Each structure stands twice: as C-alpha cells, then as structure tokens.
Amino acid sequence: xxxxxxxxxxxxxxxxxxxxxxxxxxxxxxxxxxxxxxxxxxxxxxxxxxxxxxxxxxxxxxxxxxxxxxxxxxxxxxxxxxxxxxxxxxxxxxxxxxxxxxxxxxxxxxxxxxxxxxxxxxxxxxxxxxxxxxxxxxxxxxxxxxxxxxxxxxxxxxxxxxxxxxxxxxxxxxxxxxxxxxxxxxxxxxxxxxxxxxxxxxxxxxxxxxxxxxxxxxxxxxxxxxxxxxxxxxxxxxxxxxxxxxxxxxxxxxxxxxxxxxxxxxxxxxxxxxxxxxxxxxxxxxxxxxxxxxxxxxxxxxxxxxxxxxxxxxxxxxxxxxxxxxxxxxxxxxxxxxxxxxxxxxxxxxxxxxxxxxxxxxxxxxxxxxxxxxxxxxxxxxxxxxxxxxxxxxxxxxxxxxxxxxxxxxxxxxxxxxxxxxxxxxxxxxxxxxxxxxxxxxxxxxxxxxxxxxxxxxxxxxxxxxxxxxxxxxxxxxxxxxxxxxxxxxxxxxxxxxxxxxxxxxxxxxxxxxxxxxxxxxxxxxxxxxxxxxxxxxxxx
Length: 541
Prior knowledge:
- The longest helix has 17 residues, at 484-500.
- The protein is α+β, with helices and mostly antiparallel strands.
- A hairpin with a 2-residue loop joins strand 17 and strand 18.
- The two termini are 33 Å apart.
- It is built from 18 helices and 26 strands.
- Helix content is 28%, strand content 22%.
C-alpha cells in the first residue's frame, strides 16, 4: 500500500493512483439529491472479520466501514486515520501513536485498548488469521503465533485511552503502511463477546468505525449496502448516503444494468473493453494483482518434481492470452511481483528479478521436461483437476490454461470452476491439485508478495519450500532491514529462486477496464491494497 519512504524505493504505484475527480469539499449546488452509488463486484462478500478476511472484495468493504491508525490517501501515501500523529524512536524500534477521540457506530468510545485487543486477537493461534504473518515484525509476535507465548506478550500496549505504543523486533521501514491494513484495524471486544462464533457473520453482528457502516448483508447474499456512519469522527466529509454493491458474474448482465441505470460502476471483460474504449465513461487501470497457478506439492510426486512444474509453466503462451483472449490491458506476468510496484535507482524490481525461462513460451522444451518428469516419477501418463473461480475471469483462465497444458503428451486436465468463497476455502485447506490464485500487493514493496511463499506461510497453499528462499527473505527482513541496497538484492535473488524452481506459475498482471458514470465524482482508486475509497465520493447533478 502506501508509504512515504521504503528504503528509498521510488514507487510507480504512487504515480499511477487515479482519482475520478478531485477529492475534498464539493458545492452542495453540484450534488444530486440521491447520494447513492451502485457498484458491481464479480463475487459475493466473503468476510467482515478483519482478522480473517483475505480477499480484495472483503478488503474493499472493510476499508470503507473501518479505519486504522493511518489511512491511505491520494498519491498512495499514508495520512492520519484514528491516529492524529505518531513518532518513531531513533533506533526505529518504537512507534507511538496519538489517537484522536472517536466512537464506534454504536456510540461507544473507541480507545487504544480496542487496538490492543484486536492485535492480540489476530495473532492468537486460535483465531487462525491468515494475515497474522504481517505482525511478524512486532516484538514477540512469532512466539505468540507459534504458541510459545501468550497474546498479552505482543509488543503493543496502551498508555491511557488515547496513546498506543508499538515495539518492533527490528526496524521496518514500511511499518506505517502495515498499520493502515485492515488486519490492523481496531475491534470492539463487546461485539465479539456478544456474538461469539457468529461475530461479523452478517451486517448486524458487528460494529463499525469507518466512513460507512454495513447495514444490509445476510452473510451469504450477493448484495450488500453501506450507509453513512454518522458516528465517524470525520463524518462531515462523507457525502454519499449509500454504497450499494451487487455481485454480478455475467459481464453482459452487468453491462445491461449499467446501460439501464441500475449500476454506476462495472468491470468489463471479453470484447467489452475493445467495444467501449472510446467511451467517456471508460477507464483502463493498472493493478498490482498477479494471477498465478499454485501446484499442491504436499504429496503428489509429479507436482513435487521440478521439471514437471517447469514444463507446466513453459507450455503456457502468456502473450497470446493477454493479447488475443483477455484484451483488457492485462500484461504477461514475469514473476509474483507486479511491474511498477517498486523502483530503485531507476530500475523496476519486476524487470530486474526475472527468470525468462520461467515464464517464456517454449513448447519443445516443455515437452522434453514433461517426458523426463514422467519417467522420473515412474509414470506413463498423468491427470489433474485445475480449480478456479466460477467468474468470467476465473473460467477464462482455467479454459486457456487447460488448452495450453493439453499440448503436452500423456496429460489430461479437467477444470472445476466453483464459487469464489468455496475456492478460497479449498485453497487454504489444500483441497486441490492445481488452482488459479491471485494476489494484489498490500503495500508498494516486493516483500508484500514474496513473503507469501516462505515455508509455513498460511498463503503458501501449494506448500512449496526452499531453505535458500527462506534465508534470503529472512536477511531482507532482519539482517539488512536498514541496508537498502543489500535488502533489494536479497529480494531480487529470492524471486529468482522462486521462479527457477517454479514454486508457482505466474500467468498475468491484471488490467482493470471499467465503465464509470460521469456523475460519480471523488472516488479514489489505488493500484495496491483495498483499491477503492468512497469516503469523499459524491453523485453530481
């Protein structure tokens, strides 16, 4: 996400930030009476528990119904949120956040204790938070997550009601961007205690502290509504009364609803971007999202074979896919770190950390490697099921990959496209052979992507493991935390290890073609993180 300085990294993502209109105050004379925006999502809302939400749709909703110590603003930089100011010690190990007076949506006072409770809850093993790894740099976090220390040992404490002190295990240059993430938001203990296992399972079993509150969501419905939160400390700048989301999986249905006025913001796919590229409502955005294939290496000897994994990557023609099939501004992925995410000394990390053989198309070599893998594993043939979402993008990816893998002899591929929530669950539980996954950078530093594939990381669904990789990530995180050049090289080398061993199969960096009604003003889009902020948006006449 956003940070002022990341080991002197220049951030292209910051330059790519797009505002649909200037943020700030707008004349009431220019505002329509009905301040409601209707937004399309490709899948249903999965979770509203900030410790457990893992997908970008949940993240976007949490970003608009909650707020942390800091918040992301224009130009991908952090700005004051619930913390009106903060200081950092000279050794970089202690952050002191000074909180403003604010309230929960139920009128209760929000204090530093709500952060202490939330953070301890997230790292507690019983919570099973997949995002708990982002806390690893805080003192004692790893020991807590491993069950060796109690959550109370986490390096966070309150000083009175409005001061929060955080102690780190080692300096972290991008720490301010971490506390702006949803998993670092405060949590109302009273709500958790009241609802127990049903906490955050629907709109009513939660309380909110952000610009909006969730007022309509059954927990399983394809529609959910945000309503202006009058208890929000900065409610005076919030102009929208409602943000109404609808999960619409069929792109033609979404387009019809856009044209009839039922939707104000929609995503485009297939031939739609080409057909509407000259429309005044058309917006082509660059995201930090990489779509990739994970291979389950827990037990399957074929998928544990490096040559087999290399063959499965090498046989995919990525350029053909993005140019002939997607045609939506997406580009071939060269790794897990997206192009433009981080620049140092004029060099783009994604370009500097490439391994061409890991993502270039080479059918002849792929077939040779595949034959060798079959022989080494004692097989004459192999079959697998490729798991993916039942969205247009998910179906497109699995169908294309199936067609490419079908070029390999003695290999049968079956596709299984299932609802997004179900696919997430199966991925997390290792219930797959191969799965099309996606990851959007949480903040503009390569570590946000690369840390996913360390041994034991909860997002490492395929269970790929490399001691060399783990060592490089550890050096970048701890040993060279304050040595920008050395840290950068650690991360470059780490991605090369991941690619050479084909720990994952990168496919493409997502383009985001959209139609946005011209009457919708003030929405801010970020290439990283939760993407959309409606806190200062409004509907013009």
